[in-house]
């Protein structure tokens, strides 16, 4: 899955094993997941700790933040720079980056800004399109293994609709039972039940709640879908 996403975003061929782009990307995603887990750092609960020096005991979050800054910059830049260097050569492959950069008017006043947007968007292909997809597929497989009678009904529906051929997008509406099992497996085991912490940029009101500016907001997907 990771190799497919990298090729789609950057047009870079990747190795099945030991590919440097994939290995570094996976390390970066794991690090982001660790630091964004609610409660993983004291500074999330006691914001004043951000003012203590990095050498002070308990300030490991500052060193981790510097490491993450370096990793995020390399995560965004390394494959993008490789894709750009391949443009106009025999190594160039159609990709999101090649198509998006080709659509930018170099004479535009915001051409550089548009390139940065392409760079950031391409990075999100891997950041948002690998772990979540793999986790969703594994959750569905787990549910099917736990409930073989449900698996049998899904198999029957696939056989009746496809008649031995591979599925395509037009078959989705014809496979309601399969789609229901996919939705249910994601309800039972969503890939990110607490999402990613966000910060409010201004005072806001949501229902009966007043949310001050700079509040850290942690969504809970399980709130209205108890298991």
Automatic annotation (TrEMBL):
Keyword Glycosyltransferase (UniProt): no
Cofactor requirement: heme
Protein name: Cytochrome P450
Annotated coiled-coil segments of the chain: none
InterPro entries documented for this protein: Cyt_P450, Cyt_P450_E_grp-I, Cyt_P450_sf, Cytochrome_P450_fung
Gene3D superfamilies (UniProt xref): Cytochrome P450
Transmembrane segments: none
Organism: Candolleomyces eurysporus
The organism's place on the tree of life at top rank: Eukaryota
Associated pathway: Secondary metabolite biosynthesis
Annotated keywords: Heme, Iron, Metal-binding, Monooxygenase, Oxidoreductase
Family label: Belongs to the cytochrome P450 family.
Molecular-function annotations in GO: heme binding; iron ion binding; monooxygenase activity; oxidoreductase activity, acting on paired donors, with incorporation or reduction of molecular oxygen
Keyword Heme: yes
């Amino acid at each position: 899955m990771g190799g497919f996403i990298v090729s789609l975003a950057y047009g870079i061929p990747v190795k099945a094993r030991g590919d440097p782009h994939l290995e570094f990307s996976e390390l970066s995603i794991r690090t982001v997941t660790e630091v964004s887990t609610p409660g993983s750092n004291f500074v999330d609960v006691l914001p004043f700790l951000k003012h203590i020096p990095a050498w002070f005991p308990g300030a490991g979050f500052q060193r981790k933040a510097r490491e993450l800054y370096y990793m995020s910059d390399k995560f965004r830049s390394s494959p993008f720079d490789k894709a750009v260097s391949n443009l106009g050569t025999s190594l160039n492959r159609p990709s999101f980056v090649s198509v998006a950069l080709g659509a930018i008017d170099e004479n535009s006043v915001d051409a550089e800004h548009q390139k940065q947007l392409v760079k950031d968007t391409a990075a999100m292909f891997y950041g948002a399109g690998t772990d979540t997809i793999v986790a969703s597929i594994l959750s569905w497989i787990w549910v099917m293994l736990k409930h073989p009678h449900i698996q049998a009904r899904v198999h029957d529906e696939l056989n009746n609709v496809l008649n031995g051929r591979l599925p395509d997008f037009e078959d989705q509406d014809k496979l309601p039972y399969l789609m229901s099992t996919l939705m249910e497996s994601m309800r039972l085991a969503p890939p990110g039940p607490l999402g990613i912490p966000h910060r409010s940029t201004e005072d806001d009101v949501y229902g009966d709640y007043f949310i001050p500016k700079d509040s850290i907001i942690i969504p809970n997907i399980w709130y209205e879908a108890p298991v």
